[in-house]
Amino acid sequence: MDDLDLHREQILRHVGPIITGRFAGFLTSYTREVRIGQPLVMAVFLASSVFHMLGAALRMKPSRRSFKELKKGPEFLVTPVRLRDDLGQTYEVEMHGQLPQSALRRGDLVQVTTTPQKDPALPVRLVRVVNLTTMQPLTPRIPTMWSHLGPALLLQAVLGIVVVAAIMAFWMR
Fold first, then answer.
1. pLDDT of 101-116, one tens digit each?
2. Torsion region of 73: left, alpha or beta (phi above 0 gives left; psi -120 to 50 gives alpha)
3. In degrees, to the nearest 5, what angle opens at C-alpha 52 toward C-alphas 48 and 55?
4. Backbone angles phi, psi at 16, to 5 degrees
5. All residues at 6 or more sequence positions from 104 whose CB lies less than 8 Å from its CB, including other chains
6. Model-level pTM?
7. Other C-beta atoms within 10 Å of 87: how many?
């Protein structure tokens, strides 16, 4: 055992849903991909294809992303956050999404609401922060499947379903 191991700070995993302590800082952020259901993406893609073909017949050029891009899913920012309680113990939680940089300053008293992640090897996920120094509640926002697909593609899918329903109603007469 060398001297570096003797002075290394021990990072604890908190088991409760609420941690109260001082904000010690953010660590280096990285991105992680959100998994999305392929059948739902396929349904939206096919429904929007009907509208896309109709637009091509009318010589319109609606925006189009490939199925491969849609299937990949959105990426979100993961930032490890360090907190220190009154006893000097350090806790690490993961924040998914972003907060304004001016929202937390080193040494602010915070109350963090957490939830466990699916992978037990990962630290708990930060769901909400209340900065008790400024009394400001904060919630990081992450992209969802719906924001990844986007309003344009969803509108095209709805219009595609309407066109197919109108054709089916006309044909069934």
1. 788 899 899 999 998 8
2. left
3. 140
4. -80, 165
5. 23, 110, 129, 131, 138
6. 0.62
7. 6
